[in-house]
Amino acid sequence: MITSGGAASSGEPSVTTAVTGDEVAEHIAKELGAESLEDACQNDDIGWACNVVEIEPLTPTDMRVVITEPAKSVLPVGVAMGFKNFTVTGEGSPLPDLKTVIVVNSAGDELYRVTE
């Protein structure tokens, strides 16, 4: 299960959005035609949706995604771009103005950051 919440790390925007990580995950899964991100990963072989621990919307334009590690053959840039592209698309996007996605590992080390 994907968790949401928590405070932002130093140097990152503070949490100022009412959107939850679960809402973002549900929207992305819907856009992918899957029941969940885990389903998209396991059944549809969408590697950037694999190994997600937490999705944390920080502001209406910034989001952090925590992963255990990128899936095999997926670079951190692919994780960041997948989350950015599928979060802003579709009807009812919870973060239509998303500009920055920060991908970190479980230890909090930044793996990649994509900014529009």
Count up the helices. Answer: 3
Radius of gyration: 13 Å
Alpha carbon gap, first and last residue: 29 Å
Number of domains: 1
Mean pLDDT reading: 89
Query: Can you count the beta strands?
Result: 4
Helix content: 25-40%
Order of strands in the sheet with the most strands? 1-2-3-4
Strand/helix succession: HHEEHEE
Folded structure, characterized:
- Strands 1-2-3-4 form a 4-stranded mixed β-sheet.
- Mean pLDDT is 89; it is low at 1-10.
- It is globular.
- By secondary structure, the chain is of the alpha+beta class.
- A hairpin with a 2-residue loop joins strand 1 (52-59) and strand 2 (62-67).
- The protein has one domain (21-115).
- It contains 3 helices and 4 strands.
- Helix content is 28%, strand content 22%.
Summary tags:
116 residues; alpha+beta; four-stranded mixed sheet; 3 helices; globular; disordered N terminus
Brief overview:
The protein is of the alpha+beta class.
